Amino acid sequence: MTLRRSVLTAAVAGGLSVTLLAGCKSSTSGSGSAPGPAPTGIGGSASSLASKAQSAASSALSEISGGVLAAGDVTAGPVVIDADGHAASQLTVENKTDADHDYTVSVIFDDSGGGLQDVVVVNVSGVPGHGEARATAKSNRKLSGSLTAKVSAAVRH
């Protein structure tokens, strides 16, 4: 692993460790989202959940080679509760570079009081240079109430 990759992974994983409490899922998207399997064994202490979430995020990020922090390239739209009871937010990824890139994005869902409810990781493939792509961040579990979605980290690679 190169020094640049080590520093990038540590920086993003460190930022995620502060916000990750509820689990992590990857989904691949070109024009939408294909959710990965829901995590199993969600029970346990908050520290156990944080450890599992941090491990999942670190694992996803460790596969990234030559990435650049790019949270400013991604915006999360309003949260809606879909037919199956999961929170969903449309992501817009704006690639400000000349070349096509993939993005790995961490999204947190908060309740109206600012309490963390869930965390997901979304992979957005093939965002064209100076172009946009959309994807959907979908919660791992059923959520309700007034929720917001925030991009907590993004890596362009």
Automatic annotation (TrEMBL):
PROSITE patterns: PROKAR_LIPOPROTEIN (PS51257). The keyword Signal applies. The keyword Signal applies. It comes from the Bacteria. Keywords: Signal. Residues 28-47 are annotated as: Disordered. Residues 1-22 form the signal peptide. This is Lipoprotein. It comes from Catenulispora subtropica. The lineage of its organism: Bacteria, Bacillati, Actinomycetota, Actinomycetes, Catenulisporales.
